[in-house]
Design a protein that fits this description.
With 373 residues, the chain is α/β, with parallel strands linked by helices. It has two domains: 22-54 and 284-372, Aspartate Aminotransferase, domain 1 (Alpha-Beta Complex); 59-281, Type I PLP-dependent aspartate aminotransferase-like (Major domain) (Aspartate Aminotransferase, domain 2). It is 44% helix and 14% strand. Helix 8 (186-195) links the parallel strand 5 (168-174) and strand 6. Pyridoxal-5'-phosphate binds next to helix 5.
Length: 373
């Protein structure tokens, strides 16, 4: 690739992504009037259930590691990239050459879409799914074909396969899917990856696999160089604000992706990388977060059952539910009780997503819904 062309495209990508970051911030707090409120103070005093953040994190070890790392943040810490990649390689059973790091997995979803946009063509994805990367991808000239989920709100793998054509340069799959929390059976996913043309990137977003030990498809990356798996420290590790993510792919694929991370000092900061290194070692914390997530989710399920609210069994830290049988406007009712984040991801639909907070927070959600019913 010609360097000037790459830089031009990268600059365009940076502009596109910074724009979409603001859009995303607005979307996750849709119900606020930013002109009249001190948004961040207001948010801190509320129960925040809009962005699937881990309410317990970061772990004590990760916090201490980040505090300790502040003192070395006057220096570039290029060696730390290799250290973190090695730790991730050991955790995932790959080598450090199979890994690229990003400031959160969003950065890497963007870089993979930039790579696909450079190839010129289209991208196929589910509707609804995690869309943070999509507006920027469109602006980079990568139109998106959206395929509705099945009636059970699962990714429609056959439908996606049928929607792909010779111009499809990327297919994005989120498994478990955000916002529905559903998982595709491993064998179906495997067959799907095998069938996709080797010239089409399969971008598989596994942000939530850790909550229920959903099998990762990363075992296929050596045999399928078009497969890119995105992972994050934002969820079970509780480090969303620290911005650490990574992709797993064939070493040749990683080399090509590195070409598109043209801003050489991109990726997580030294402080965040130290946090991630410590977080990997703190297995007890992750186990605790997973158990608390299950407990808090059970409380919500029971509340929904008692109120006759249909919901989907979720393999993640959020739940998709149908408000059709509830008389009041649930987001407004929750907001009136200092709970923000229940929101819609489909046009003209009664389905909403709500993130799972702590046990106490979910008890409050249920109490509010019961009082309002
Ligand atoms: C499916 C999915 N992928 C990626 C991300 C972005 O994660 P990160 O914080 O690593 O950028 C999110 C965040 O909510 C997500 O839900």
């Amino acid at each position: 690739m010609e360097r000037r062309q790459l830089l031009k495209q990268s600059a365009f990508a940076i502009a596109a992504f910074s724009f979409s970051r603001e859009l995303f911030a607005n979307a996750s707090n849709t119900t606020f009037d930013s002109s009249t409120l001190n948004k961040s103070n207001m948010l801190n005093s509320m129960i925040r259930l809009g962005s699937n953040e881990n309410p317990h994190g970061p772990s004590t070890l990760a916090k201490q590691a980040m505090i300790d790392a502040v003192g070395i943040s006057n220096r570039y810490q290029w060696d730390m990239n290799a250290e973190l990649k090695t730790a991730i390689a050991n955790m995932t059973g790959h080598t450090k050459d199979h890994i690229a790091l990003g400031a959160g997995s969003s950065e890497l979803l963007g870089i993979v879409s930039l790579w696909a946009a450079y190839k010129k063509g289209n991208v196929v994805a589910s509707e609804p799914t995690f869309k943070l990367w999509m507006p920027a991808a469109r602006r980079m000239g990568l139109p998106t074909k959206l395929v509705p989920l099945t009636s059970t709100k699962h990714n429609d793998l056959n439908g996606i396969m049928n929607a792909m054509d010779q111009e499809t340069k990327m297919v994005y799959l989120c498994n478990p899917n955000n916002p529905t929390g559903t998982v595709s059976p491993t064998s179906e996913l495997e067959n799907f990856i095998k069938k996709v043309a080797s010239t089409t990137i399969v971008l598989l977003d596994e942000a939530y696999t850790d909550y229920y030990d959903t099998p990762s498809m990363s075992k296929m990356i050596d045999a399928y160089p078009n497969l890119v798996i995105a992972k994050t420290f934002s969820k079970t590790f509780g480090m969303a604000g620290a911005r650490v993510g990574y992709v797993l792919a064939h070493p040749n694929t990683i080399k090509q992706l590195n070409e598109f991370q043209a801003w050489a000092n991109a990726g997580p900061s030294a402080v965040s990388m130290q946090g991630a290194l410590a977080a990997i070692k703190d297995k007890a914390f992750v186990t605790y977060c997973k158990q608390e997530n299950i407990k808090a989710k059970e409380i919500l399920y029971q509340g929904f059952d008692a109120l006759g609210i249909k919901h989907i069994k979720s393999f993640t830290s959020f739940v998709y539910f149908d408000t059709a049988t509830y008389k009041k406007d649930i987001p407004a009712l929750l907001l009136a009780n200092q709970i923000t984040g229940a929101r819609s991801f489909e046009q003209n639909s009664t389905w909403l997503r709500i993130s799972i907070g702590t046990v106490t927070e979910m008890e409050k959600v249920v109490a509010v819904l019961k009082l309002g019913a």
